[in-house]
Amino acid sequence: MIRRLLAVFHARNLEFLRDRGTLLFTILLPIMLVIGMGFVFGGPQRPLFKVGVLGAPGDAHAHLFLAERYVQFVPLPEQDAALHKLTHQQVDLLVDFSGGTRYWVNTDSPKGYLVEKLLLAAEPGAHREPVAGAALRYIDWLFPGILGMNMMFSCLFGVGYVVLRYRKSGFLKRLHATPLSAFEFLSAQVLSRLALILFITMILYAGIGAIIGFHSAGSVLLLLLLAVTGALSMIALGLTIAARFSSEELVGGLLNVLTWPMMLLSGIWFSLEGSPRWVQWVAHVFPLTQLLDAARAVMLDGAGLTQIAPNLLYLAGTTLVFLAFGAWSFRWRID
Amino acid sequence: MSAPLLEVSSLVKQYPATTAVDSVSFAVPEGICFGLLGPNGAGKTTTVEIMEGILPPTSGEVRYRGEPLGARFREEAGILFQKTALQDFLTVRQCIALFRGLYTHGLEVEEVIRICALEKLAARDARKLSGGQQQRLLLAIALVNDPAVLFLDEPTTGLDPQARRNFWRLVESVKARRKTIILTTHYMEEAELLCDEIAIMDGGRIVAQGPPRRLLSEHFADVLLELPRQDFPESARALPLKLMEAADRVEITTDDLEATLRTLLAAHVPLTHLRIRPPNLEDLFLELTGKELRP
Question: Cβ A177–B99 below 8 Å, yes or no?
Fold first, then answer.
């Protein structure tokens, strides 16, 4: 039995080691994950709270609160923008050290509640200012992220593996013998997946809305348009990966290389406020970031078509680029 | 003779370690069944896949109705690959309808189902068909655009004898509709039954081409005698006979049966297991290449 087991073990190892692409990504993916996690969560001490500081940064000797550990202080020069970030839970507390210490807190934020205790322990005389307008719960901010994440996985993995299976089974080769073009085939895959994703997203939107309720200030039709363009862009991105390769492990690795950075950097779970500028710039390259930024603008701020037009254009443009690249690099059969 | 429907000129397909197709040229007139014969690895499938426009050649070209392969060819060609998987969870009728939707012109789905005798299977999941039934479905898909030229790449490999004969009957009915058929096979019986003209391939080259009967009459006398190798003594090899050696037998071709039998008897060759039969394409391949088609 051991001999047979070793024979199969050896053959499988050879198969894996000779699949150079897969091997490369198996090694590269964990390295990239370590680097990515390091940038996002790294630093000498991971802050638990984000506090926006209005105006002058304040003197750490004069203000004991500034010496608190596990609190990241983010300079926010504009008061209106800073209050917007507070109500949208992108910072947990907003403080102004110019003159007497004043602060604003989102009363619906558990982290805001805790960091307020820290502030008052360090500076008992700090004066709490009222927050104008409705403060948002974390779930209101998180909800578009959850929908977007579900769309991302369905778009990338759903399409990627299906096309790969068609290629491996020879079904693509048979289609190649017909008048069907690569662009037509890919477009059909995109539309089919799009219909499925929209259906599922609408069920989630209605279902979660009915069960826990969430804040949505903007137009539902605009959200639908966003969902369509966002899904199209991410499906087309998945197709660029599936367009050429025939190894499940390689395609799986490549899809992970795409999904993990989006998971970490697109703002699904937490805001990138306070992250290095280049990290925020990289995050905005991802279609998911564009989708979530626009969806939150519509749902939380009631943004209209004009405000989210740049995001829509970006998503539509990347869809065309990804589809064109996918059609160009498409392989009907295993080389 | 009508103008060729397909012309293959100086076709070469080179891979890093081997030349799969080596300067192959031939023409296929409209309305005939043209067979590409040869053992596994002879270059048949590679040649046919280049003709189908699936595989690019290293050099040379294929012309359809005098033009390079293009949109018209894709509309008018029907193809049955050696191995084809279909989309999961579709019924037989849905599989045919899917492919019908890819062509501008063609037959009605129900007509194709009738032609390929799939009426009773039309609602069945395509994954649950037997080997013979699956080949009938793949033939139906190949016929769905009412093709002018039909490619059949080893269509009966792996089928049991009954399923094979059923499939041959279907192909004969397609032939009767004046379709041009390109058939690759290593079953000589299949080629003799269906093909009007054949090209025999070996090592990527065509070693003989023409109508089967003409090729046989060019290379063989009237009859062929077959003896088990162990019954044929070494001393008999010096006899004035035309011999061909296969793995398990010795074959003698002659146009004077009586004289050959007398020679063998005089040399005390045991004739108990002697078989006398007309030569076939398998013998022709042995004669041309010194190898058997199915060793």
Answer: no
The one-character DSSP state at B53 is: T
Residue A209 CA to residue A227 CA, distance in Å, equals 17
Residue B206 vs residue A58, higher pLDDT: B206
Are the beta carbons of A274 and A221 closer than 8 angstroms? no
* CB within 8 Å: A177 and B54: yes
Beta bridge partners of A215: none
CATH 3.40.1000 is held by the domain B221-278: no
Q: Does B1 touch chain A (CB under 8 A)?
A: no
Helices of type H across B128-228: 131-143, 161-175, 188-194, 212-219
In order of B6, B52, B270, the CA distances from B65 in angstroms are: 6, 14, 57
- Kindly state whether residues A176 and A223 are assigned to the same domain: yes
Q: Tokens 């203000």 correspond to what residue?
A: A63
B81 CB neighbours in chain A (<8 A) are 170, 173-174, 177
Amino acid at A276: P
Out of B86, B103, B104, the one facing A171 most closely (by C-beta) is B86
Average pLDDT for residues B98-106, to the nearest whole number? 90
ipTM value for the complex: 0.80
Q: Which amino acid is at A203?
A: I
Q: Would you call B52 and A177 a contact, using CB atoms and an 8 Å cutoff?
A: yes
The percentage of chain A sitting over the pLDDT mark of 90, rounded to a whole number, equals 16
Question: Are the beta carbons of B77 and A170 separated by less than 8 Å?
Answer: no
H or E, element range at A40? helix A20-41
Q: Token pair of B269, please?
A: 């060759």
Task: Report pLDDT for A2.
Answer: 66
Sorting pLDDT into bands at 50, 70 and 90, what band is B122?
very high
Average pLDDT over residues A27-44: 59
* Residue B86 sits at the chain A interface (C-beta within 8 Å): yes
Q: What separation, in Å, do the N-terminal and C-terminal C-alpha atoms of chain B show?
A: 37
Asked if B54 and A171 come within 8 Å (Cβ–Cβ), the reply is no
Provide the pLDDT for residue A186: 84
Full residue range of the structural domain in which residue A207 is found = 138-329
Q: Burial level of A276, CB count in 10 A (0-12/13-18/19+)?
A: exposed
Neighbour-count burial for A226-247, b at 16+ CB within 10 Å, e otherwise: bbbbbbbbbbbbbbbbbbbbbb
In the sheet that B180-185 helps form, which strands lie side by side, from edge to edge?
B77-80, B149-153, B180-185, B33-37, B197-202, B205-210
Asked, for residue A133, whether it belongs to a domain, the answer is no
On whether the CB atoms of residues B226 and B249 are closer than 8 A, the answer is yes
Residue spans per domain, chain B: 4-216, 221-278
